[in-house]
Amino acid sequence: MTFHLSLNSIYFFVALLILARADFYDDLGISRKATLKEIKKAYRSKSLEFHPDKNKAEGAADKFGEISRAYEVLSDEEKRQIYDERGEEGLKRHEDGGGGFGGGGGFDDIFSHFGFGGRQRQDDGVQRTPSVEIPLRLTLQQMYEGVELEVDYVRQTLCMNWEMCMKTSKECQGPGVKVKMQQIAPGFVQQVQQRDNNCVARGKMWKPNCRDCPKGKTQPETISLSVEVTPGMRAGERVSFESVADEKPGMEAGDLHFVILQVDVNPVLFTRDGDRLYKTMEIPLVDALVGFKRTLEHLDGHKFTIQVDKVTECDHVMRVPGKGMPRRSGRGFGDLYLTFEIDFPEELSAEQKAGINKILRGDVKDEL
Asked: Under the phi-then-psi rule, with left for phi > 0, alpha for psi from -120 to 50, and beta for the rest, what region is 287?
């Protein structure tokens, strides 16, 4: 038996699949622009409400599971980004290491799978205010352990009644752009583009001295952000917050990026290259010859022991597995590389020279 599906039928079928997906934001009762602090607050509230130990109602345990899954995804920056772009199915394929309809998400992947070709995501054409980058100064210890910082950020937000201060203007062609027709000669007219900050959108102009916004288009607002640095993050990486930069009429707010900058109190303790750590150790000559054991303290304060039983050459490098930086994937640690420098004595007594000769050469010379 052969079934023939029309294109409209396939669109309807796919739409039902996507609509049937759970929405993690709805599970926590938050907006898609919620900050990490808001996500954590919502999770605490919801988890207490539906915890099986406290809520014996039918379906409470299932709801608690959905809330926990939503928090697991939305509190993880990488998983949240994948979920926002590809939906729950795209996230599952990512967690499973691929498969399904491929690496994209939504209609594009599904139609491509049915042979209709994919549609690339295009710029939505919306004008945004400039994004902001702020250096986030962290020590290597903080990048090793991970840290959550509470930050107050001051931005410009729109006046509450800003829409009441708009008027129609055909000359406004967009935010800050005004176009006028100028006659340059009899029968000749030229379009002239000018900068005009009162133009806030295409066809819209700001009313000067508007009573509904006596302080102007925007006013300062202080917002609290939780900047979460996960263990193993590197210098140059970003912790981003979407649409929290300055607001302007007719434009969407840009993004705020905290850019990690490593600043060490004691830079000679460890140096870093990716997931690897490096340290230089000075050992006395006797240890280089007969072997040694050392207890070292790591960045987070835990102690570990190394042991060398062979002769150590100058500038010898020893690899200590699993004692480097945490891997960003959360799967284990990189390695630590120790470089040994040998501290030679400035001078030896005649007796010491004789003893060394006897041990290393097997005889004793009368004169050294």
From this structure: alpha
Mean pLDDT for all residues in the chain: 81
> Is a pLDDT exceeding 50 seen at residue 295?
yes
Rounded CA-CA distance 115/107 in Å is 12
Contact 212, 148 (CB under 8 A): no
| Of 162, 163, 155, residue with least CA distance to 217 | 162
User: Measured over all CA atoms, what is the biggest interatomic distance in the chain, rounded to whole angstroms?
Assistant: 117
DSSP conformation class of 211: T
Tell me the Cα Rg of the chain. Answer: 32
Q: Which residue has the higher pLDDT, 59 or 187?
A: 59
Q: Where are the strands (E) in the chain, listed by range?
A: 132-138, 147-158, 166-174, 177-185, 188-195, 199-206, 218-229, 238-241, 256-262, 271-273, 276-284, 292-297, 303-308, 316-320, 336-343
Are the C-beta atoms of 29 and 46 separated by less than 8 Å?
yes
The three-class DSSP label of residue 162 is helix
